[in-house]
């Protein structure tokens, strides 16, 4: 069984978002436009389907067209707990915070874990952290 993969519709920012995430996570972004798919329900250069690949995060995104609603989220976080070495997680947190909003600084907690939350410039809420025993 495979894990669920988020697929988000963005308000005309899918190209920018996926390119940004590819830079943050060190992976590739494959982008297909409406024109590539022969669609006429939006601007030809709008993203009809995009995906992050070859990296630690898989995410699908497209530009909202027609009557599709753009992504808006409350009560949901994309969790990257223990997904990479601590130094990498700190870098991801820093990069995702650029132009976004830190909800809770990445810091050591009383129970020994280190975590923090950030909402990036595209409105995606991330929980990033690790347990100290994951560093060895």
From TrEMBL:
<dbReference type="InterPro" id="IPR029068">
    <property type="entry name" value="Glyas_Bleomycin-R_OHBP_Dase"/>
</dbReference>
<protein>
    <submittedName>
        <fullName>VOC family protein</fullName>
    </submittedName>
</protein>
<feature type="domain" description="Glyoxalase/fosfomycin resistance/dioxygenase">
    <location>
        <begin position="14"/>
        <end position="126"/>
    </location>
</feature>
<dbReference type="InterPro" id="IPR004360">
    <property type="entry name" value="Glyas_Fos-R_dOase_dom"/>
</dbReference>
<dbReference type="Pfam" id="PF00903">
    <property type="entry name" value="Glyoxalase"/>
</dbReference>
């Amino acid at each position: 069984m495979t894990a669920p993969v988020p697929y988000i519709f963005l308000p005309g920012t899918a190209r920018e978002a996926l390119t940004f995430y590819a830079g943050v996570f060190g992976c590739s972004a494959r982008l297909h436009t409406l024109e590539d798919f022969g669609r006429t329900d939006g601007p030809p250069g709008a993203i009809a389907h995009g995906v992050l690949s070859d990296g630690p995060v898989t995410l699908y995104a497209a530009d909202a067209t027609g009557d599709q609603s753009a992504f808006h989220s409350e009560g949901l976080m994309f969790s990257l707990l223990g997904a990479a070495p601590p130094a990498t997680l700190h870098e991801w947190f820093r990069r995702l915070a650029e132009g976004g909003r830190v909800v809770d600084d990445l810091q050591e907690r009383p129970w020994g874990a280190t975590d923090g939350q950030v909402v990036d410039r595209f409105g995606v809420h991330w929980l990033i952290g690790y347990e100290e025993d994951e560093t060895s």
